[in-house]
Amino acid sequence: MTTDDRALVDRFLDMMAAEAGASKHTLTAYRNDLDRAAETIGSLGTASSDQVSRLGSSWADLAPSTVARRSAALRRFFGFLIDEGFRRDDPSSALPRPRFERPLPRILDEEEVRRMFQSAEDRAGSGETAAVRNLALLELLYGSGLRASELVSLARTAVRPSQPFLMVRGKGSKERLVPISGRAQAAVRQWLEHVPSGSPWLFPSAKSHLSRVRLFQIVRTIASDAGIPPERVSPHVLRHAFATHLLSGGADLRVLQTLLGHADIATTQIYTHVDSARLVELVNARHPLATRPR
Predict the structure, then answer these.
(1) pLDDT band at residue 105 under the 50/70/90 scheme
(2) 1 versus 16: which is more confidently predicted?
(3) Residues 27 and 16: beta-carbon distance below 8 Å
(4) Known catalytic residue at 271
(5) Could you tell me which of 10, 197, 259, 268 has the fewest CB atoms within 10 Å of its CB?
(6) Which segments within the chain are labelled E, that is strand?
(7) pLDDT band at 83, cuts 50/70/90?
(8) Angle 64-83/24-41 helices, nearest 10 degrees?
């Protein structure tokens, strides 16, 4: 990548951080994708449509999702160059547009979740510090649908007895309200008795807060104790279970979108696959023509 291109990429990433609230992880991914593209087409700032079109063949062996992500990064970068007056033409129409189906989420049924809770509750009954913490983690993962990063970074004061909700900072530093059940509040109250008074985190570790890797290990251990193959379970699978079971219980898709913190409802719509029979039943029971005599 040329020196001029690096300066443009730096300005682009500064904009993404300031205006779009992009996380460090997102900014790193954008930089890597732009670096890889520059290896093929040369200068990004002056690349023609013909040069950009070469990316299709150079990305032929990549997964469709990777191609889509890299193309999206370049489209946004070229759009930034045009908005800022660094170039007049937009070569992004030459970028590949792969067609792929979003993979369906792995899910647990309600009985499997019940078994995980039973196992976690039995262990927490001993009063062991780690077991009490693990039950609080499980209650918040499944009961509130939090992302792993949102859960481990919760402040010590995030759960308050007088408030039936949490204020969570999600992707892009966007804040949203998340309900917290009475069960989760009780589990967190019990856990707070074990949290050092000087800790700013609800789930502290030696130097900071609990890591996502450690949370992943904890969830898999709980699954194993409950007789569920641990490779089927992760913090994100429990988030999927939260969404799936709410939708199955009659939750509105827009409400679910808000609870999960999805920017695009298309992301939330993937959960509609899980209970097609219930949706058909709902249409037959609620549609105005359902009760009209033939």
Answers:
(1) low
(2) 16
(3) yes
(4) yes
(5) 197
(6) 165-169, 175-179
(7) confident
(8) 90
Percentage of the chain beyond pLDDT 70 is 80
Each as own residue / partner, the long-range contacts of residues 250-258 (CB below 8 Å, 24 or more positions apart, any chain) are 250/282, 258/176
Count, residues in the chain: 294
Q: Indicate which residue of 70, 239, 240, 245 is catalytic.
A: 239
Asked about 171 being catalytic, the answer comes back as yes
> Are the C-beta atoms of residues 62 and 100 closer than 8 Å to each other?
no
In the chain the domains, ranked by start, together with CATH numbers, are 3-94 (1.10.150.130), 110-235 (1.10.443.10)
- Catalytic (active site) residue 76: no
171, 212, 214, 278: the active-site residue:
171
pLDDT digits (tens, 9 = 90+) for 18-42: 766 677 888 899 999 999 999 988 8
Whether 253 contacts 269, CB under 8 Å: yes
**204 pLDDT more than 60:** yes
- The amino acid occupying position 98 is P
147 is catalytic: yes
Q: Of 41 and 246, which is predicted with more confidence?
A: 41
Strand, helix or coil for residue 128: coil
Question: DSSP letters along 144-172, please?
Answer: H---HHHHHT-BTTSS-TT-SEEEEE-GG
- Among the listed residues 147, 209, 220, 245, the single catalytic one is 147
Q: Which residue in 236, 254, 287, 292 is the catalytic one? A: 236
Arithmetic mean of pLDDT, 86-113: 78
CB-CB contact of 244 with 109 (8 Å):
no
Buried (b) or exposed (e) across 182-209, using 16+ Cβ within 10 A?
eebbebbeebeeebeeeeebbbbeeeeb
Q: 95: helix, coil or strand?
A: coil
